[in-house]
Amino acid sequence: MYKLRLREDRGKTLTDWLKSAHTFSFAQYFDPFNMGFSDLRVINDDIVAPSSGFEQHAHANMEIVTIVLEGAIEHRDSLGNETILNAGAIQAMTTGTGILHSEYNPSVNERAHILQIWVLPDRKNLSPEYSQKYFPEEEMKNELRLVVSKYGKKGSLKIHQDVLLYRSILEADKTIIYELSDNRKFWLQVARGAVEVNSSILEAGDGISFVDESGYLEISGVDLESDFLLFCLRNLTI
Questions:
Q1: Helices in the chain by DSSP H: which ranges?
Q2: For residues 160 and 197, what is the distance between their CA atoms, to the nearest angstrom?
Q3: Residue 137 phi/psi, 5° resolution?
Q4: What is the strand order of the sheet 11-14 is part of?
Q5: Rounded to whole angstroms, how far apart are CA atoms 170 and 221?
Q6: 45 and 21 in contact (C-beta within 8 Å)?
Q7: Model confidence over 211-223: pLDDT tens digits?
Q8: Closest CA to 189 of 9, 7, 62, 64
């Protein structure tokens, strides 16, 4: 069984500095039919205006992954980390017992475009952790590059949950074949461009889930260049 989650059906937050679209219920946006998917709780598609950002705020008991699609984000946290993440960088945080952090667009004239992803941890009250890595585009070009996993396999960032997160930059008319594992759930999210997935066309912001499916996903590029994420998750009822 598969289900489309179209970009125009997402929740929205719009302020003078932030344009955000929420795949699942988040903050003031509540949709009882879209509370998450397996351990995946948040996919926020955020566009942050120049010289603006999220002031220092707290998180606990969540695994948070931030992917910078465009521009840059300045990160500071209560662990003492201060860094600027440029396009192509991915950040992973275990918030555990609690962490304070801020995210700011340091550019005075360019917007920042990021995806913020929240995943439930496999246990509560872990010690907070921080990591980041730049993944060169050539490693993702027409390939599924593992970027986040429970054990940091194949040079991926580590989080505390049984999830595999892949990223790909797919060119037009190129195709990736992915074998669906038994007793797992899958979510594909298009970040930029457009792809065809088993005869369905998905554009930037669209998502599609696969539950109790076997066989293969056939993912083909539609735009000149498309950027998408593929999650392999536990087969939970959510």
A1: 137-140
A2: 29
A3: -60, -35
A4: 11-14, 18-22, 40-48, 112-119, 63-70, 89-94, 129-134
A5: 6
A6: yes
A7: 998 899 999 999 9
A8: 7
C-beta neighbour count of 220 within 10 angstroms: 20
Three-state DSSP state, 131: strand
Tokens of 83: 């860094």
- pLDDT recorded at residue 96: 98
Low-confidence ranges of the chain (pLDDT < 70): 238
The pLDDT assigned to 197 comes to 97
Kindly report the backbone phi and psi dihedral angles of residue 155, in degrees, each rounded to the nearest multiple of 5, phi listed first.
Answer: 75, 15
Q: Which of 232, 226, 231 is nearest to 141 (CA)?
A: 226
- 217, two tokens: 């996903």
Q: How many Cβ atoms from other residues are within 10 Å of residue 192's Cβ?
A: 16
Rounded CA separation 17/8 (Å): 20
DSSP assignment of 196-220: EETTEEEETT-EEEEES--SEEEEE
Structural domains counted in the chain:
1
Return all residues near 23 (Cβ < 8 A) that are at least 6 apart: 5, 10, 34, 42, 43, 44, 45, 189, 207
User: What CATH number is given to the structural domain containing 164?
Assistant: 2.60.120.10
User: Looking at residue 237, what is its pLDDT?
Assistant: 78
Q: How far apart are CA 227 and CA 142, in angstroms?
A: 10
Look up the domain containing 114 and give its range.
2-234
